[in-house]
Amino acid sequence: MAAAREIQSESHRANALSRLADKLPELLSEALAAARQIQDESYRAKALSSLADKLPPELLSEAVAAAREIQSESSCADALSSLADKLSQIQKTPLFDHWRETLHILSVHTRPNLLNDINALTPVIFTLGDEQAVKDIASAIQDVSRWWG
């Protein structure tokens, strides 16, 4: 992990963190901390995204906080979308707080990104609102698409 932190290229550092997380799951907390230190937001989002599926529930809040710190809307949304499947595994009360804050961030996305975001967030939507919520969102998308069409 110390060697990965020393890599000057943030792109290569993000790749190294991802590979370390695959091989050494006991270092996930350190890998997440190292990912947060990456200055380039697109590489930080890439590192967070690559760590997302490996993170245990106790590190999810920290990962979401790191994703929210990203100022670039598209990079932030990418990182949050990558965390969505894992977020569906936490309790509903903290999940709802993350959901509310995530929706605010995603609200500034473009139309093509909206559909990708909803697709990525479907596990969270299902966890919070069950099958009916997913159906309601699909229906709303169809209604709005008629307006855009």
Keywords:
80% helix, 0% strand, mainly alpha, 149 residues, 8 helices
First-to-last CA distance: 51 Å
Number of helical segments with 4 or more residues: 8
Radius of gyration: 16 Å
Main sheet overview: none
Number of folding domains? 1
Number of strands: 0
Beta-sheet strand percentage?
under 5%
N-to-C SSE series? HHHHHHHH
Overall, the morphology is: globular
Poorly predicted runs: none
User: Structural class from helices and strands?
Assistant: mainly alpha
Written description of the protein model:
The chain is mainly alpha-helical. The protein has one domain (2-148). It has eight helices and no strands. The chain has helices spanning 2-5, 10-23, 28-36, 41-52, 57-68, 73-87, 92-106, 111-148. Helix 3 runs parallel beside helix 5 (57-68) and helix 6 runs antiparallel to helix 7. It is globular, with a radius of gyration of 16 Å. The model has no long low-confidence stretch (mean pLDDT 82).
Write the layout of secondary structure elements.
Layout: H1 2-5, H2 10-23, H3 28-36, H4 41-52, H5 57-68, H6 73-87, H7 92-106, H8 111-148
Helix pairs in contact: 2-3, 2-4, 3-4, 3-5, 4-5, 4-6, 5-6, 6-7, 6-8, 7-8
Concise description?
The chain has 149 residues and is mainly α. It has 8 helices and no strands.
